[in-house]
Amino acid sequence: MEVDEGLYSPIGVLAGAFFLRRRNRANRRLRTGCRGDYGLGVGKPWFPMRTWQPRAGTLSWLRAVVVIGMAAVCVVACSSSADSPRETERPASTVTADGFVVESAAITVSGSAGVAPVGTQVSVAQESMSSPVGTAMFRPFDGSAFDVRLAGGDLQPQSPIHLQFSLDAGNVEDRLREGATLVVLARSATGELDLLPAHWDGASATLNTNTTHLSGFWPGWLDVGAVRQGLADGIAAAMGLRSAKPECLGEPAETASVMLSVSPVERDVAWPCVDVSGGKVTVGLHSSSPWVWLVKTSPAVSAFEVHGKDLAGAVAAGIFYEAEIGKAQGASVLVPGDTTTFPFEASAPPAYGQMQVEAGLSLVSVVLAEISAAADLFGVKLGLVDDLIDNSGKLICLATVAETLNGVSEADFAARAGALGRATLDCVGSIGGVAGAVFLGAVTGVVSALFASLGGLWNALTGQDRASFTVTATTKTTVVSDHGFGAIELGMTADEAKARLSPVVRDVTYYGRCRVMSNKPDTIWDLSVWINTTTGRVTGIETPRGTVTDRNVGDGSTAAQVRQAYQRDHTIEEGNIGGQGSSAIIVRPKNSPGLGRYICFPITSDGSIGPPSVGRPYASEGC
Q1: Per-residue model confidence (pLDDT) at position 176
Q2: C-beta neighbour count of 285 within 10 angstroms
Q3: Around Cβ 119, how many Cβ atoms within 10 Å?
Q4: Average per-residue pLDDT in the chain?
Q5: N or C: which end of the chain has fewer CB within 10 A?
Q6: Structural domain boundaries of the chain?
Q7: CB atoms near residue 411 (< 10 Å)
Q8: Inter-residue contact 582 to 576 (CB < 8 Å)
Q9: Angle at CA 389, nearest 5°, toward 386 and 394?
Q10: What is the DSSP track for 307-337?
Q11: pTM score, two decimals?
Protein backbone atom coordinates (compact mmCIF):
# COMPACT_ATOMS: atom_id res chain seq x y z
CA MET A 1 0.00 0.00 0.00
CA GLU A 2 1.36 3.41 -0.98
CA VAL A 3 0.64 6.27 1.38
CA ASP A 4 1.44 9.95 1.19
CA GLU A 5 4.41 10.30 3.55
CA GLY A 6 3.17 13.71 4.63
CA LEU A 7 0.06 12.23 6.21
CA TYR A 8 1.65 10.56 9.21
CA SER A 9 4.69 10.62 11.47
CA PRO A 10 6.69 7.35 11.83
CA ILE A 11 6.88 6.00 15.38
CA GLY A 12 8.75 3.30 17.31
CA VAL A 13 6.86 0.05 17.77
CA LEU A 14 6.96 -3.39 19.34
CA ALA A 15 8.48 -6.86 19.61
CA GLY A 16 7.69 -10.55 19.13
CA ALA A 17 9.13 -14.07 19.20
CA PHE A 18 10.95 -16.84 17.35
CA PHE A 19 8.00 -19.26 17.46
CA LEU A 20 4.57 -17.67 17.03
CA ARG A 21 1.48 -19.37 18.41
CA ARG A 22 -1.23 -16.68 18.73
CA ARG A 23 -3.70 -16.70 21.63
CA ASN A 24 -7.25 -17.05 20.23
CA ARG A 25 -9.57 -15.53 22.79
CA ALA A 26 -13.28 -15.38 22.02
CA ASN A 27 -13.50 -11.75 23.10
CA ARG A 28 -10.87 -10.84 20.51
CA ARG A 29 -12.51 -12.21 17.38
CA LEU A 30 -13.18 -9.78 14.58
CA ARG A 31 -16.75 -9.06 13.76
CA THR A 32 -16.22 -8.86 10.04
CA GLY A 33 -19.78 -9.83 9.18
CA CYS A 34 -21.61 -6.87 10.68
CA ARG A 35 -24.17 -6.85 7.84
CA GLY A 36 -24.17 -10.52 6.98
CA ASP A 37 -23.25 -10.94 3.33
CA TYR A 38 -23.98 -7.32 2.54
CA GLY A 39 -21.17 -5.39 4.16
CA LEU A 40 -19.02 -2.80 2.50
CA GLY A 41 -16.47 -4.14 0.05
CA VAL A 42 -15.43 -4.25 -3.55
CA GLY A 43 -17.38 -6.80 -5.51
CA LYS A 44 -20.20 -7.13 -2.94
CA PRO A 45 -23.67 -5.53 -3.23
CA TRP A 46 -24.24 -2.62 -0.86
CA PHE A 47 -27.85 -3.63 -0.17
CA PRO A 48 -29.51 -7.09 -0.10
CA MET A 49 -30.56 -7.95 -3.62
CA ARG A 50 -33.14 -10.55 -4.66
CA THR A 51 -34.30 -11.59 -8.13
CA TRP A 52 -38.08 -12.07 -8.55
CA GLN A 53 -39.98 -13.15 -11.66
CA PRO A 54 -43.76 -12.29 -11.83
CA ARG A 55 -46.22 -14.93 -12.82
CA ALA A 56 -48.03 -14.72 -16.12
CA GLY A 57 -51.07 -12.43 -16.04
CA THR A 58 -49.78 -10.18 -13.32
CA LEU A 59 -47.83 -7.62 -15.37
CA SER A 60 -50.78 -5.34 -16.10
CA TRP A 61 -51.74 -4.71 -12.48
CA LEU A 62 -48.07 -4.47 -11.51
CA ARG A 63 -47.60 -1.62 -13.99
CA ALA A 64 -50.51 0.20 -12.39
CA VAL A 65 -49.06 -0.29 -8.93
CA VAL A 66 -45.66 0.95 -10.08
CA VAL A 67 -47.14 4.13 -11.60
CA ILE A 68 -49.12 4.90 -8.45
CA GLY A 69 -46.09 4.13 -6.26
CA MET A 70 -43.82 6.42 -8.25
CA ALA A 71 -46.30 9.25 -7.88
CA ALA A 72 -46.48 8.71 -4.14
CA VAL A 73 -42.67 8.70 -3.84
CA CYS A 74 -42.50 11.99 -5.75
CA VAL A 75 -45.01 13.61 -3.41
CA VAL A 76 -43.17 12.42 -0.31
CA ALA A 77 -39.77 13.48 -1.66
CA CYS A 78 -40.99 16.95 -2.57
CA SER A 79 -42.62 17.50 0.79
CA SER A 80 -39.74 16.14 2.95
CA SER A 81 -37.77 18.51 5.15
CA ALA A 82 -34.13 19.39 4.52
CA ASP A 83 -33.45 18.12 8.04
CA SER A 84 -34.74 14.57 7.40
CA PRO A 85 -32.31 11.63 7.92
CA ARG A 86 -29.55 11.40 5.33
CA GLU A 87 -30.37 9.06 2.46
CA THR A 88 -27.83 6.94 0.68
CA GLU A 89 -25.73 9.03 -1.69
CA ARG A 90 -24.47 7.52 -4.91
CA PRO A 91 -22.44 10.17 -6.72
CA ALA A 92 -20.55 8.94 -9.76
CA SER A 93 -18.02 10.08 -12.32
CA THR A 94 -16.02 8.82 -15.25
CA VAL A 95 -12.23 8.68 -15.48
CA THR A 96 -10.79 11.13 -18.03
CA ALA A 97 -7.27 11.73 -19.26
CA ASP A 98 -6.77 14.01 -16.26
CA GLY A 99 -8.20 11.53 -13.73
CA PHE A 100 -11.48 12.04 -11.90
CA VAL A 101 -13.23 13.81 -9.04
CA VAL A 102 -16.41 12.61 -7.29
CA GLU A 103 -17.92 15.07 -4.85
CA SER A 104 -20.74 14.95 -2.34
CA ALA A 105 -21.57 16.79 0.84
CA ALA A 106 -19.78 14.15 2.93
CA ILE A 107 -16.83 13.00 0.81
CA THR A 108 -14.65 13.98 -2.11
CA VAL A 109 -12.82 11.20 -3.96
CA SER A 110 -10.18 12.03 -6.54
CA GLY A 111 -7.56 10.35 -8.65
CA SER A 112 -4.81 11.69 -10.88
CA ALA A 113 -4.08 10.94 -14.53
CA GLY A 114 -3.44 7.24 -15.15
CA VAL A 115 -5.35 6.07 -12.08
CA ALA A 116 -7.54 3.87 -14.30
CA PRO A 117 -8.34 3.49 -18.02
CA VAL A 118 -10.16 6.48 -19.54
CA GLY A 119 -13.91 5.90 -19.46
CA THR A 120 -13.87 3.79 -16.29
CA GLN A 121 -16.93 4.43 -14.12
CA VAL A 122 -16.27 5.63 -10.55
CA SER A 123 -19.01 5.29 -7.94
CA VAL A 124 -19.32 6.18 -4.27
CA ALA A 125 -21.98 4.86 -1.88
CA GLN A 126 -22.64 6.21 1.61
CA GLU A 127 -24.70 4.58 4.34
CA SER A 128 -25.02 4.72 8.12
CA MET A 129 -23.23 1.71 9.57
CA SER A 130 -21.54 0.79 12.84
CA SER A 131 -17.84 0.00 13.13
CA PRO A 132 -16.76 -3.30 11.51
CA VAL A 133 -14.55 -4.18 14.49
CA GLY A 134 -15.86 -5.39 17.82
CA THR A 135 -13.77 -3.12 19.99
CA ALA A 136 -14.26 0.31 21.53
CA MET A 137 -10.68 1.17 20.63
CA PHE A 138 -11.93 2.44 17.23
CA ARG A 139 -14.71 5.03 17.06
CA PRO A 140 -16.19 6.09 13.69
CA PHE A 141 -17.28 9.69 13.16
CA ASP A 142 -21.09 9.99 12.81
CA GLY A 143 -21.48 6.31 11.93
CA SER A 144 -21.00 6.79 8.19
CA ALA A 145 -19.26 4.33 5.90
CA PHE A 146 -18.28 4.84 2.26
CA ASP A 147 -17.90 2.33 -0.55
CA VAL A 148 -15.69 3.45 -3.45
CA ARG A 149 -15.48 1.42 -6.65
CA LEU A 150 -13.90 1.48 -10.08
CA ALA A 151 -15.83 -0.28 -12.82
CA GLY A 152 -18.32 -1.63 -10.29
CA GLY A 153 -15.56 -3.20 -8.24
CA ASP A 154 -13.77 -4.99 -11.08
CA LEU A 155 -10.68 -2.72 -11.02
CA GLN A 156 -8.22 -1.45 -8.43
CA PRO A 157 -6.46 1.92 -8.94
CA GLN A 158 -3.06 2.05 -10.59
CA SER A 159 -2.01 5.03 -8.46
CA PRO A 160 -3.14 6.37 -5.06
CA ILE A 161 -6.67 7.71 -4.72
CA HIS A 162 -7.27 10.61 -2.35
CA LEU A 163 -10.18 10.48 0.10
CA GLN A 164 -11.37 13.69 1.76
CA PHE A 165 -14.10 13.32 4.40
CA SER A 166 -16.07 16.40 5.48
CA LEU A 167 -16.60 16.20 9.25
CA ASP A 168 -17.88 18.26 12.17
CA ALA A 169 -14.83 20.37 13.09
CA GLY A 170 -15.85 20.74 16.74
CA ASN A 171 -16.20 16.98 17.19
CA VAL A 172 -12.84 16.25 15.58
CA GLU A 173 -11.00 18.92 17.55
CA ASP A 174 -12.48 17.59 20.81
CA ARG A 175 -11.05 14.18 19.96
CA LEU A 176 -7.63 15.66 19.20
CA ARG A 177 -7.57 17.45 22.55
CA GLU A 178 -8.21 14.06 24.20
CA GLY A 179 -5.10 12.67 22.49
CA ALA A 180 -6.92 10.55 19.90
CA THR A 181 -5.16 9.23 16.79
CA LEU A 182 -7.16 10.06 13.64
CA VAL A 183 -7.41 7.17 11.19
CA VAL A 184 -9.48 5.73 8.38
CA LEU A 185 -10.44 2.09 8.80
CA ALA A 186 -10.70 0.11 5.55
CA ARG A 187 -12.37 -3.26 5.00
CA SER A 188 -12.00 -5.24 1.78
CA ALA A 189 -14.64 -7.39 0.11
CA THR A 190 -13.12 -10.46 1.81
CA GLY A 191 -13.35 -8.84 5.25
CA GLU A 192 -9.66 -7.97 5.63
CA LEU A 193 -9.06 -4.83 7.69
CA ASP A 194 -6.44 -2.11 7.37
CA LEU A 195 -5.66 1.15 9.17
CA LEU A 196 -4.84 4.18 7.03
CA PRO A 197 -3.07 7.22 8.49
CA ALA A 198 -5.20 10.36 8.28
CA HIS A 199 -4.48 14.10 8.38
CA TRP A 200 -6.91 16.68 9.74
CA ASP A 201 -7.15 19.93 7.77
CA GLY A 202 -8.79 22.41 10.11
CA ALA A 203 -9.14 25.09 7.44
CA SER A 204 -11.35 22.91 5.22
CA ALA A 205 -12.73 20.76 8.09
CA THR A 206 -11.74 17.58 6.24
CA LEU A 207 -10.00 14.33 7.18
CA ASN A 208 -7.62 13.25 4.43
CA THR A 209 -5.97 9.98 3.48
CA ASN A 210 -4.65 8.13 0.43
CA THR A 211 -5.28 4.52 -0.59
CA THR A 212 -4.24 2.18 -3.39
CA HIS A 213 -6.94 -0.40 -2.61
CA LEU A 214 -10.62 0.43 -2.85
CA SER A 215 -12.73 -0.89 0.01
CA GLY A 216 -15.30 0.20 2.51
CA PHE A 217 -13.99 3.18 4.51
CA TRP A 218 -14.85 4.46 7.98
CA PRO A 219 -13.33 7.82 9.06
CA GLY A 220 -12.73 7.76 12.81
CA TRP A 221 -10.22 7.74 15.61
CA LEU A 222 -8.36 5.40 17.96
CA ASP A 223 -9.59 6.16 21.49
CA VAL A 224 -6.46 6.23 23.68
CA GLY A 225 -8.47 5.54 26.82
CA ALA A 226 -10.08 2.50 25.24
CA VAL A 227 -6.72 1.35 23.87
CA ARG A 228 -5.21 1.48 27.33
CA GLN A 229 -8.21 -0.25 28.91
CA GLY A 230 -8.28 -2.91 26.22
CA LEU A 231 -4.61 -3.70 26.74
CA ALA A 232 -5.01 -3.69 30.52
CA ASP A 233 -7.97 -6.08 30.27
CA GLY A 234 -6.00 -8.38 27.99
CA ILE A 235 -3.04 -8.41 30.36
CA ALA A 236 -5.31 -9.09 33.33
CA ALA A 237 -6.88 -12.01 31.47
CA ALA A 238 -3.46 -13.37 30.50
CA MET A 239 -2.21 -13.09 34.08
CA GLY A 240 -5.20 -15.10 35.26
CA LEU A 241 -4.60 -18.07 32.97
CA ARG A 242 -4.06 -21.52 34.48
CA SER A 243 -3.50 -24.92 32.91
CA ALA A 244 -5.39 -28.16 33.49
CA LYS A 245 -3.66 -30.99 35.31
CA PRO A 246 -1.91 -33.40 32.91
CA GLU A 247 -2.79 -37.09 33.08
CA CYS A 248 0.77 -37.96 34.10
CA LEU A 249 0.53 -35.95 37.34
CA GLY A 250 1.22 -38.16 40.36
CA GLU A 251 2.16 -41.20 38.28
CA PRO A 252 5.45 -42.89 39.34
CA ALA A 253 8.07 -44.18 36.91
CA GLU A 254 10.52 -47.01 37.35
CA THR A 255 13.85 -48.25 36.16
CA ALA A 256 15.04 -51.80 36.71
CA SER A 257 16.23 -50.89 40.22
CA VAL A 258 14.34 -47.83 41.49
CA MET A 259 10.84 -46.36 41.67
CA LEU A 260 10.71 -42.58 40.99
CA SER A 261 8.09 -40.11 42.16
CA VAL A 262 7.98 -36.31 42.10
CA SER A 263 6.37 -34.05 44.70
CA PRO A 264 3.82 -31.31 43.91
CA VAL A 265 5.12 -27.78 43.34
CA GLU A 266 4.11 -25.16 45.91
CA ARG A 267 0.88 -23.31 45.04
CA ASP A 268 0.57 -25.53 41.96
CA VAL A 269 2.42 -23.02 39.79
CA ALA A 270 3.55 -26.00 37.70
CA TRP A 271 2.46 -29.62 37.30
CA PRO A 272 5.49 -31.99 37.53
CA CYS A 273 5.64 -35.44 35.89
CA VAL A 274 8.40 -38.05 35.83
CA ASP A 275 9.05 -40.66 33.13
CA VAL A 276 11.63 -43.26 32.14
CA SER A 277 12.24 -43.83 28.44
CA GLY A 278 15.15 -44.60 26.15
CA GLY A 279 17.60 -44.97 29.03
CA LYS A 280 16.74 -41.50 30.36
CA VAL A 281 14.80 -40.18 33.31
CA THR A 282 12.84 -37.08 32.36
CA VAL A 283 11.06 -34.59 34.58
CA GLY A 284 8.46 -32.54 32.72
CA LEU A 285 7.23 -29.28 34.26
CA HIS A 286 3.85 -28.21 32.83
CA SER A 287 3.28 -24.50 33.45
CA SER A 288 0.19 -23.56 35.45
CA SER A 289 1.17 -19.95 36.05
CA PRO A 290 1.14 -16.74 33.99
CA TRP A 291 4.72 -15.99 35.06
CA VAL A 292 8.02 -16.96 33.47
CA TRP A 293 10.07 -19.15 35.83
CA LEU A 294 13.80 -19.89 35.91
CA VAL A 295 14.39 -23.49 36.97
CA LYS A 296 17.53 -25.05 38.49
CA THR A 297 17.85 -28.78 39.17
CA SER A 298 20.29 -30.99 41.04
CA PRO A 299 22.12 -32.33 39.16
CA ALA A 300 21.99 -29.52 36.58
CA VAL A 301 20.36 -30.41 33.27
CA SER A 302 22.50 -31.07 30.23
CA ALA A 303 19.90 -30.06 27.65
CA PHE A 304 16.40 -28.66 27.36
CA GLU A 305 14.20 -27.08 24.71
CA VAL A 306 11.40 -24.51 24.99
CA HIS A 307 9.56 -22.70 22.18
CA GLY A 308 6.45 -21.19 23.78
CA LYS A 309 2.96 -22.18 22.74
CA ASP A 310 1.56 -18.65 22.52
CA LEU A 311 3.00 -15.27 21.62
CA ALA A 312 3.90 -14.26 25.19
CA GLY A 313 5.69 -17.56 25.77
CA ALA A 314 7.49 -17.33 22.45
CA VAL A 315 8.67 -13.79 23.22
CA ALA A 316 9.97 -14.91 26.62
CA ALA A 317 11.71 -17.99 25.18
CA GLY A 318 13.35 -15.95 22.40
CA ILE A 319 14.70 -13.36 24.85
CA PHE A 320 15.88 -16.08 27.26
CA TYR A 321 17.89 -17.95 24.63
CA GLU A 322 19.37 -14.95 22.84
CA ALA A 323 20.42 -13.17 26.04
CA GLU A 324 21.49 -16.43 27.75
CA ILE A 325 19.57 -15.46 30.87
CA GLY A 326 20.47 -17.65 33.83
CA LYS A 327 23.23 -19.47 31.93
CA ALA A 328 25.84 -18.74 34.58
CA GLN A 329 23.59 -20.30 37.23
CA GLY A 330 22.76 -23.31 35.06
CA ALA A 331 19.10 -22.30 34.96
CA SER A 332 16.55 -23.23 32.32
CA VAL A 333 13.19 -21.58 31.64
CA LEU A 334 9.51 -22.46 31.98
CA VAL A 335 7.22 -20.11 30.04
CA PRO A 336 3.44 -19.71 30.44
CA GLY A 337 1.30 -22.33 28.75
CA ASP A 338 4.24 -24.58 27.87
CA THR A 339 6.11 -27.62 29.17
CA THR A 340 9.83 -27.82 29.81
CA THR A 341 11.39 -31.28 29.87
CA PHE A 342 14.57 -31.96 31.82
CA PRO A 343 16.53 -35.13 30.85
CA PHE A 344 18.81 -37.04 33.23
CA GLU A 345 20.80 -40.24 33.04
CA ALA A 346 18.87 -43.11 34.59
CA SER A 347 21.83 -43.82 36.84
CA ALA A 348 21.70 -40.24 38.21
CA PRO A 349 18.07 -39.11 38.53
CA PRO A 350 17.42 -35.60 39.92
CA ALA A 351 16.99 -34.96 43.62
CA TYR A 352 15.16 -31.61 43.48
CA GLY A 353 14.35 -28.51 41.47
CA GLN A 354 14.21 -24.85 42.51
CA MET A 355 12.06 -22.27 40.70
CA GLN A 356 12.16 -18.47 40.74
CA VAL A 357 9.92 -15.99 38.91
CA GLU A 358 11.57 -13.93 36.15
CA ALA A 359 9.20 -10.99 36.72
CA GLY A 360 10.72 -8.52 34.26
CA LEU A 361 10.74 -11.03 31.42
CA SER A 362 7.14 -11.96 32.28
CA LEU A 363 5.94 -8.37 32.10
CA VAL A 364 7.76 -7.46 28.89
CA SER A 365 6.59 -10.58 27.05
CA VAL A 366 2.92 -10.40 28.04
CA VAL A 367 2.62 -6.67 27.27
CA LEU A 368 4.11 -7.13 23.80
CA ALA A 369 1.83 -10.11 23.16
CA GLU A 370 -1.27 -8.12 24.14
CA ILE A 371 -0.25 -5.16 21.96
CA SER A 372 0.09 -7.58 19.03
CA ALA A 373 -3.30 -9.13 19.82
CA ALA A 374 -4.91 -5.68 19.88
CA ALA A 375 -3.29 -4.80 16.54
CA ASP A 376 -4.73 -8.00 15.07
CA LEU A 377 -8.22 -6.66 15.74
CA PHE A 378 -7.57 -4.05 13.03
CA GLY A 379 -5.90 -6.46 10.63
CA VAL A 380 -2.50 -4.94 11.45
CA LYS A 381 0.21 -7.59 11.11
CA LEU A 382 3.27 -6.45 12.99
CA GLY A 383 5.57 -9.16 11.58
CA LEU A 384 7.10 -9.86 14.97
CA VAL A 385 8.61 -13.25 14.16
CA ASP A 386 10.52 -12.24 11.05
CA ASP A 387 11.64 -8.98 12.59
CA LEU A 388 13.15 -10.57 15.68
CA ILE A 389 14.76 -13.46 13.83
CA ASP A 390 16.55 -10.91 11.65
CA ASN A 391 17.38 -8.57 14.55
CA SER A 392 18.72 -10.51 17.53
CA GLY A 393 19.99 -7.24 18.98
CA LYS A 394 16.38 -6.33 19.73
CA LEU A 395 16.06 -9.41 21.95
CA ILE A 396 19.21 -8.40 23.82
CA CYS A 397 17.75 -4.93 24.30
CA LEU A 398 14.49 -6.39 25.64
CA ALA A 399 16.46 -8.59 28.03
CA THR A 400 18.13 -5.44 29.39
CA VAL A 401 14.71 -3.87 29.99
CA ALA A 402 13.56 -7.03 31.78
CA GLU A 403 16.68 -7.11 33.94
CA THR A 404 16.19 -3.44 34.86
CA LEU A 405 12.57 -4.13 35.82
CA ASN A 406 13.74 -6.93 38.12
CA GLY A 407 15.81 -4.39 40.01
CA VAL A 408 12.90 -2.00 40.61
CA SER A 409 11.54 -2.05 44.17
CA GLU A 410 7.84 -2.08 45.01
CA ALA A 411 8.07 1.51 46.24
CA ASP A 412 9.70 2.73 43.01
CA PHE A 413 7.69 0.66 40.55
CA ALA A 414 5.02 3.27 39.73
CA ALA A 415 7.65 5.97 39.19
CA ARG A 416 10.06 3.94 37.04
CA ALA A 417 7.83 1.49 35.17
CA GLY A 418 6.56 4.10 32.68
CA ALA A 419 10.01 4.87 31.31
CA LEU A 420 10.71 1.16 30.99
CA GLY A 421 7.46 0.74 29.07
CA ARG A 422 8.64 3.28 26.51
CA ALA A 423 12.06 1.58 26.44
CA THR A 424 10.33 -1.70 25.54
CA LEU A 425 8.93 -0.14 22.36
CA ASP A 426 12.19 1.66 21.65
CA CYS A 427 14.01 -1.70 21.68
CA VAL A 428 12.16 -3.01 18.66
CA GLY A 429 11.95 0.19 16.63
CA SER A 430 9.63 0.55 13.63
CA ILE A 431 7.66 -2.53 12.70
CA GLY A 432 4.42 -3.45 10.96
CA GLY A 433 4.70 -0.97 8.10
CA VAL A 434 2.42 2.06 7.79
CA ALA A 435 -0.55 0.40 9.49
CA GLY A 436 1.68 -0.69 12.36
CA ALA A 437 2.94 2.86 12.75
CA VAL A 438 -0.62 4.18 12.84
CA PHE A 439 -1.77 1.75 15.53
CA LEU A 440 1.38 2.05 17.60
CA GLY A 441 1.05 5.81 17.55
CA ALA A 442 -1.87 5.32 19.91
CA VAL A 443 -0.02 2.67 21.94
CA THR A 444 3.00 4.92 22.48
CA GLY A 445 0.75 7.42 24.20
CA VAL A 446 -0.51 4.90 26.76
CA VAL A 447 2.34 2.42 27.29
CA SER A 448 3.90 4.38 30.16
CA ALA A 449 0.64 4.57 32.06
CA LEU A 450 -0.06 0.93 31.19
CA PHE A 451 3.22 -0.29 32.70
CA ALA A 452 2.76 1.87 35.78
CA SER A 453 -0.75 0.47 36.31
CA LEU A 454 0.65 -3.05 36.68
CA GLY A 455 2.09 -2.32 40.12
CA GLY A 456 -0.58 -4.47 41.75
CA LEU A 457 0.62 -7.52 39.83
CA TRP A 458 4.19 -6.69 40.71
CA ASN A 459 3.49 -6.33 44.43
CA ALA A 460 1.45 -9.54 44.47
CA LEU A 461 4.69 -11.44 43.87
CA THR A 462 6.00 -10.57 47.33
CA GLY A 463 6.78 -13.88 49.02
CA GLN A 464 5.29 -15.78 46.08
CA ASP A 465 8.20 -15.71 43.66
CA ARG A 466 9.84 -19.02 44.62
CA ALA A 467 8.76 -22.65 44.42
CA SER A 468 10.37 -26.10 44.39
CA PHE A 469 9.83 -29.82 43.88
CA THR A 470 11.65 -32.99 44.97
CA VAL A 471 12.22 -36.30 43.21
CA THR A 472 12.26 -39.42 45.37
CA ALA A 473 14.03 -42.58 44.19
CA THR A 474 13.03 -45.71 46.12
CA THR A 475 15.05 -48.90 45.63
CA LYS A 476 12.71 -51.63 44.46
CA THR A 477 12.58 -55.19 45.73
CA THR A 478 12.31 -56.79 42.31
CA VAL A 479 11.11 -60.37 42.22
CA VAL A 480 10.98 -63.15 39.65
CA SER A 481 7.76 -64.66 38.30
CA ASP A 482 7.33 -67.35 35.68
CA HIS A 483 6.87 -64.62 33.04
CA GLY A 484 9.49 -62.03 33.98
CA PHE A 485 11.66 -60.09 36.39
CA GLY A 486 10.04 -56.89 37.65
CA ALA A 487 9.17 -54.67 34.70
CA ILE A 488 11.08 -56.86 32.21
CA GLU A 489 8.94 -59.67 30.78
CA LEU A 490 9.30 -62.58 28.39
CA GLY A 491 8.04 -61.76 24.90
CA MET A 492 8.58 -58.01 25.01
CA THR A 493 10.53 -56.32 22.21
CA ALA A 494 14.19 -55.43 22.42
CA ASP A 495 13.35 -51.71 22.55
CA GLU A 496 10.87 -52.23 25.37
CA ALA A 497 13.38 -54.25 27.34
CA LYS A 498 16.10 -51.68 26.76
CA ALA A 499 13.91 -48.87 28.07
CA ARG A 500 13.07 -50.79 31.26
CA LEU A 501 16.57 -52.14 31.80
CA SER A 502 17.99 -48.61 31.72
CA PRO A 503 20.81 -47.86 31.84
CA VAL A 504 22.24 -50.44 29.42
CA VAL A 505 25.95 -50.91 30.06
CA ARG A 506 26.52 -54.06 28.02
CA ASP A 507 24.90 -54.93 24.68
CA VAL A 508 26.54 -57.89 22.90
CA THR A 509 25.66 -60.82 20.63
CA TYR A 510 26.38 -64.49 21.42
CA TYR A 511 26.00 -67.63 19.31
CA GLY A 512 25.14 -65.64 16.19
CA ARG A 513 21.54 -64.91 17.10
CA CYS A 514 21.43 -64.13 20.80
CA ARG A 515 21.53 -60.48 21.80
CA VAL A 516 22.35 -59.91 25.48
CA MET A 517 21.80 -56.61 27.32
CA SER A 518 22.80 -55.85 30.91
CA ASN A 519 22.89 -52.88 33.25
CA LYS A 520 26.25 -54.09 34.63
CA PRO A 521 29.60 -55.15 33.18
CA ASP A 522 29.95 -58.87 32.42
CA THR A 523 30.10 -60.56 35.81
CA ILE A 524 28.84 -63.78 37.38
CA TRP A 525 25.21 -63.55 38.47
CA ASP A 526 24.40 -60.23 36.81
CA LEU A 527 21.10 -59.03 35.36
CA SER A 528 21.13 -60.10 31.70
CA VAL A 529 18.27 -59.99 29.20
CA TRP A 530 18.49 -62.51 26.35
CA ILE A 531 16.81 -61.67 23.01
CA ASN A 532 16.40 -63.90 19.98
CA THR A 533 17.49 -61.68 17.09
CA THR A 534 15.32 -63.65 14.66
CA THR A 535 12.10 -62.75 16.46
CA GLY A 536 13.36 -59.61 18.23
CA ARG A 537 11.71 -60.82 21.44
CA VAL A 538 12.96 -61.49 24.98
CA THR A 539 13.35 -65.24 25.54
CA GLY A 540 15.27 -65.37 28.81
CA ILE A 541 16.26 -63.30 31.88
CA GLU A 542 19.15 -64.02 34.25
CA THR A 543 19.00 -62.25 37.63
CA PRO A 544 21.61 -60.85 40.04
CA ARG A 545 22.58 -61.95 43.55
CA GLY A 546 19.90 -61.60 46.19
CA THR A 547 16.99 -62.21 43.82
CA VAL A 548 13.98 -64.20 44.98
CA THR A 549 10.68 -65.11 43.34
CA ASP A 550 7.20 -63.85 44.10
CA ARG A 551 6.98 -66.81 46.52
CA ASN A 552 10.01 -65.61 48.45
CA VAL A 553 12.39 -68.38 47.43
CA GLY A 554 15.53 -67.98 45.40
CA ASP A 555 19.12 -66.99 46.07
CA GLY A 556 20.15 -68.60 49.40
CA SER A 557 17.11 -70.87 49.71
CA THR A 558 17.27 -74.68 49.93
CA ALA A 559 15.97 -77.11 47.33
CA ALA A 560 13.33 -78.27 49.81
CA GLN A 561 12.02 -74.71 50.21
CA VAL A 562 11.69 -74.35 46.43
CA ARG A 563 9.78 -77.64 46.16
CA GLN A 564 7.52 -76.65 49.04
CA ALA A 565 6.72 -73.26 47.43
CA TYR A 566 5.74 -74.67 44.02
CA GLN A 567 4.51 -78.23 44.51
CA ARG A 568 0.78 -77.30 44.56
CA ASP A 569 0.38 -75.67 41.13
CA HIS A 570 3.65 -76.21 39.25
CA THR A 571 5.38 -79.19 37.71
CA ILE A 572 8.84 -79.68 39.22
CA GLU A 573 11.89 -81.16 37.48
CA GLU A 574 15.20 -81.66 39.26
CA GLY A 575 18.59 -82.99 38.11
CA ASN A 576 21.39 -82.07 35.75
CA ILE A 577 19.09 -79.87 33.65
CA GLY A 578 20.77 -76.52 34.20
CA GLY A 579 23.16 -74.70 31.90
CA GLN A 580 25.83 -77.01 30.44
CA GLY A 581 24.41 -79.97 32.38
CA SER A 582 24.64 -78.37 35.81
CA SER A 583 22.32 -79.25 38.69
CA ALA A 584 19.08 -77.28 38.83
CA ILE A 585 15.35 -77.25 39.62
CA ILE A 586 12.89 -76.08 36.94
CA VAL A 587 9.27 -75.24 37.80
CA ARG A 588 6.46 -74.67 35.23
CA PRO A 589 2.90 -73.53 35.94
CA LYS A 590 0.35 -76.34 35.46
CA ASN A 591 -2.58 -74.21 34.26
CA SER A 592 -0.65 -71.88 31.90
CA PRO A 593 2.50 -73.53 30.70
CA GLY A 594 3.25 -71.29 27.67
CA LEU A 595 6.40 -71.69 25.64
CA GLY A 596 9.41 -70.69 27.73
CA ARG A 597 7.38 -69.80 30.83
CA TYR A 598 9.41 -71.41 33.56
CA ILE A 599 11.79 -70.59 36.39
CA CYS A 600 15.15 -72.29 36.73
CA PHE A 601 16.78 -72.44 40.19
CA PRO A 602 20.50 -73.32 39.91
CA ILE A 603 21.87 -75.56 42.69
CA THR A 604 25.33 -74.41 43.73
CA SER A 605 28.25 -76.57 44.89
CA ASP A 606 27.24 -76.24 48.55
CA GLY A 607 23.69 -77.42 47.79
CA SER A 608 22.02 -74.01 48.18
CA ILE A 609 19.98 -72.29 45.49
CA GLY A 610 21.52 -69.50 43.40
CA PRO A 611 19.72 -66.54 41.75
CA PRO A 612 16.77 -67.83 39.70
CA SER A 613 16.45 -67.21 35.96
CA VAL A 614 13.36 -67.01 33.75
CA GLY A 615 12.88 -68.78 30.41
CA ARG A 616 16.43 -70.19 30.34
CA PRO A 617 18.88 -71.96 32.68
CA TYR A 618 21.80 -69.86 33.82
CA ALA A 619 24.92 -70.30 31.60
CA SER A 620 23.08 -72.31 28.95
CA GLU A 621 24.10 -71.93 25.32
CA GLY A 622 21.64 -70.54 22.79
CA CYS A 623 18.52 -68.41 23.21
Answers
A1: 93
A2: 26
A3: 9
A4: 82
A5: N
A6: 477-614
A7: 9
A8: yes
A9: 105
A10: --SSHHHHHHHHHHHHHTTTTTTT-EEE-TT
A11: 0.66
